[in-house]
Amino acid sequence: MEHAKLNIAAIRRRANYSRIEYILRFSWSIVSIFFRNTPRLAYPLRNWLLRFFGAKIGARVTIYPSCKVFLPWMLTIGDDTSIADGVGLYCLGPLSVGNRVVISQNAYLCGGTHDFESTNFTLVRAPIVIEDDCWICAGAFIGPNVTIGARSVVGAMSAVFKDCQADSVYGGNPAQRIKTRVFND
User: Fold this and answer.
1) 3-class SS at 147?
2) CA geometry: angle at 80 spanning 145 and 160, to 5°?
């Protein structure tokens, strides 16, 4: 049986983005330096910068300056949501974050991967959906093509590769459903 070999030349030649996206990516890379150096409480300014680059940002959203957003025009965030320090929003595909969501420090939402069955590792740009009232805990990883159901919790340092049902608590690597989320108030 003959083994396939990676086509490095094809990988280097391939255009993963449109010409306008390359221009926007370059522009955002310059503006994001300013974004990261804004005062901690300058949430409206950071929201404005993201909106200027096409993000849809709701009311009373708090995004900390060390949050890294890859393609802001692929980002939608609902009202009253908080994105903490060190969060990575690698939104190659559409990334939708609902209302009243908390994404804790150093969580990473990764909306892209590569087709490992292709000899040129074709880029796959996939959506992520975080529904309303979720908590993505510190250091959690959310992979491409994943939906986190409403009112769910993804535990610290968990790695999610499949959809999570609503009203549930998930943890581990790979993340597993631990229990139903019960509210005391």
Assistant:
1) strand
2) 25
Structure tokens at 135: 């908590």
Q: Which two tokens stand for residue 87?
A: 């969060």
Q: Which amino acid is at 113?
A: T
Structure pTM? Answer: 0.91
160 membership: H or E segment, kind and range? strand 159-160
Contact between residue 60 and residue 79 where contact means Cβ atoms under 8 Å apart = yes
pLDDT tens string 12-51 = 777 778 889 999 999 999 999 999 999 999 999 999 999 9
Peptide bond into 174 cis (omega under 30): yes
- Per-residue 3-state assignment (H helix, E strand, C coil) for 11-74: HHHCCCCCHHHHHHHHHHHHHHHHHHCCCCCCHHHHHHHHHHCCCEECCCCEECCCCEECCHHH
Identify the structural domains of the chain with CATH numbers, from first to last.
17-177 (2.160.10.10)
